[in-house]
């Protein structure tokens, strides 16, 4: 047993604050706040009325089991418990085609531009990874298309495209046992447009004018529900909402449904559509966003000394996860293997990380244990890397705690080009990770002009690199101290 001593959990003691989704350095210190300026968040004292103190308490002493490092542990052999990836689908700022998406990433092209979906001229942040020219043709009928929130439109298109990619089109699904196929697509924000419009109608016109679709199209479970209704999939179905860690939580839970024999196939991932006045305005209020309005394409710059916050993105990323046994029997093409994952909580603060880093480093360690992988086997990390002032370094420090020798590891930041997709981020980044495994090419982390000295890991700056991936991990962290890590590798029979 190892004892991690208590420490004052100020965001500046060890890690500052990390970019777990929309995390930034201490809300009172960074991301646009001038010296001496602070956010007013109530009295800062816990009261009987239910208000919760937002001040960071001392870290409780935690007793953690220290697992011995084992070289090349024996991996799962049971084909009914091995989980493979047989399809991928997405909606992104670079379109809906997987190859186009990854080729744009390899080229180092930025998808960040000025927002024109609404008039943002009076906003202090006027740019993001906005999706344009999105079409649902062939996937959603016109009547429903007009009613749906973009969050669910992205989910339906990405989910259907993933099923098609896995050779699970409508005719094939009708011949399968659909009670053994589940859907688990989560979201951090839900139907934010539907919710905002409903509230606006209530205020301006009264409750009698609220559309009956207000609640159904706002609640976070509706992505999974609508996709199941559309395809007739009757297996495990629900949504997870853990802020920017959402998609990885969904992958982890979906894989466990397969491992426990509760499903043969799971459609899993994340979706988000928060680039609307409410979403952008809310994150501006948090002092979370970059304000580089004159150079939007250079705003997301993970690990660069001049980073000033994250850039909002949107979209959806969905994987088809399937037991090896089932995939083999139906002759599916196997893209990669999901080896394992883990989820942990800092149990500390709404936005600040633990100063001892235990939440993130233990999550990485637990994911490798679940995957039956030794740290020495990992040679690629798709980082969370949101471009927050202290968040990027916090993740690097946690990585260094687990991987004592990082000389063979390469680590990049997908968000540098597509922005931060919030609940969809892990889904889009899982696809980027799997494409790296299949192609042997890693996309660059762009906008790295002045790298932080503490970042001694190869972050693939500005130009793509060839790299044969042995084992990859993909990190996602979210508000509330939610940590998630998933592990992928090339499939070998």
UniProtKB/TrEMBL annotation:
* Domain of life of the native organism: Eukaryota
Q: Which residues form the Ketosynthase family 3 (KS3) domain?
A: 80-490
Q: Which InterPro entries match?
A: 3-oxoacyl-ACP_synth-2, Beta-ketoacyl_synthase, Ketoacyl_synth_AS, Ketoacyl_synth_C, Ketoacyl_synth_N, PKS_Beta-ketoAc_synthase_dom, Thiolase-like
Q: Subcellular localization, per the record? A: Plastid, Chloroplast
The UniProt keywords, alphabetically, are: Acyltransferase, Chloroplast, Fatty acid biosynthesis, Fatty acid metabolism, Lipid biosynthesis, Lipid metabolism, Plastid, Transferase, Transit peptide
Please name the GO terms of the biological process aspect recorded for this protein, alphabetically.
fatty acid biosynthetic process
Q: Which SMART domains match?
A: PKS_KS
First-tier enzyme category under EC? transferase
Record-level GO cellular component terms: chloroplast; mitochondrion
As its record notes, the protein acts as a catalyst of: a fatty acyl-[ACP] + malonyl-[ACP] + H(+) = a 3-oxoacyl-[ACP] + holo-[ACP] + CO2
State any single GO MF term: 3-oxoacyl-[acyl-carrier-protein] synthase activity
EC numbers on record? 2.3.1.41
**A Pfam family of this chain:** ketoacyl-synt
**How does it associate, per the subunit comment?**
Homodimer.
| Function, as annotated | Catalyzes the condensation reaction of fatty acid synthesis by the addition to an acyl acceptor of two carbons from malonyl-ACP.
Say which family it is in.
Belongs to the thiolase-like superfamily. Beta-ketoacyl-ACP synthases family.
PANTHER family from the UniProt entry: BETA-KETOACYL-[ACYL-CARRIER-PROTEIN] SYNTHASE I, POLYKETIDE SYNTHASE-RELATED
Q: What is this protein called?
A: 3-oxoacyl-[acyl-carrier-protein] synthase I, chloroplastic
């Amino acid at each position: 047993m190892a004892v991690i001593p208590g420490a004052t959990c100020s965001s500046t003691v060890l890690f500052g604050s990390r970019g777990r989704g929309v995390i930034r350095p201490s809300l009172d210190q960074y991301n646009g706040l001038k010296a001496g300026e602070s956010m007013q968040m109530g009295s800062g004292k816990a009261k009987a009325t239910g208000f919760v103190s937002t001040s960071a308490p001392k870290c409780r002493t935690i007793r953690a089991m220290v697992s011995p490092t084992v070289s090349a542990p024996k991996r799962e052999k049971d084909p009914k418990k091995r989980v493979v990836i047989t399809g991928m689908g997405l909606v992104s700022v670079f379109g809906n085609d997987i190859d186009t998406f990854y080729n744009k990433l390899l080229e180092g092209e930025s998808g960040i531009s000025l927002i024109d979906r609404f008039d943002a001229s009076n906003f202090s942040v006027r740019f993001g990874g906005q999706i344009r020219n999105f079409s649902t043709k062939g996937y959603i009928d016109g009547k429903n298309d007009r009613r749906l929130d973009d969050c669910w439109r992205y989910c339906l298109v990405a989910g259907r495209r993933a099923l098609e990619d896995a050779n699970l089109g409508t005719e094939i699904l009708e011949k399968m046992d659909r009670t053994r196929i589940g859907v688990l697509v989560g979201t951090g924000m839900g139907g934010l447009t539907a919710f905002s419009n409903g509230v606006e109608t209530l205020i301006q016109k009264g409750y009698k004018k609220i559309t009956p679709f207000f609640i159904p199209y706002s609640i976070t479970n509706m992505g999974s529900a609508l996709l199941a209704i559309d395809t007739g999939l009757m297996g495990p179905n629900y949504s997870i909402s853990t802020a920017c860690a959402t998609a990885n939580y969904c992958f982890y839970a979906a894989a466990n449904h397969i491992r426990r024999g509760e499903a043969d196939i799971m459609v899993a991932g994340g979706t988000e559509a928060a680039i609307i006045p409410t979403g952008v305005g809310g994150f501006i209020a948090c002092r979370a966003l970059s304000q580089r309005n004159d150079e939007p394409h250079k705003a997301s710059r993970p690990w660069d000394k001049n980073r000033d916050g994250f850039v909002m993105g949107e979209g959806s990323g969905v994987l088809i996860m399937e037991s090896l046994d089932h995939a083999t029997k139906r002759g599916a093409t196997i893209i990669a293997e999901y080896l394992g994952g883990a989820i942990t909580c800092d149990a500390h603060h709404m936005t600040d990380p633990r100063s001892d880093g235990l939440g993130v480093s233990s999550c990485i360690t637990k994911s490798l244990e679940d995957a039956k992988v030794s740290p020495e086997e990992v040679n690629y990390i798709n980082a969370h890397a949101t471009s927050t002032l202290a968040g990027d370094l916090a993740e690097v420090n946690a990585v260094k705690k687990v991987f004592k020798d990082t000389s063979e590891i390469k680590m990049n930041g997908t968000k540098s080009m597509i922005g931060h997709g919030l609940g969809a981020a892990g889904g889009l980044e899982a696809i980027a990770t799997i494409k790296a495994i299949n192609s042997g090419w890693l996309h660059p982390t762009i906008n790295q002009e002045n790298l932080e000295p503490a970042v001694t890991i190869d972050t693939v700056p500005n130009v793509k690199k060839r790299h044969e991936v042995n084992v990859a991990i993909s990190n996602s962290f979210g508000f509330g101290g939610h940590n998630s890590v998933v592990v992928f590798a090339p499939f070998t029979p």
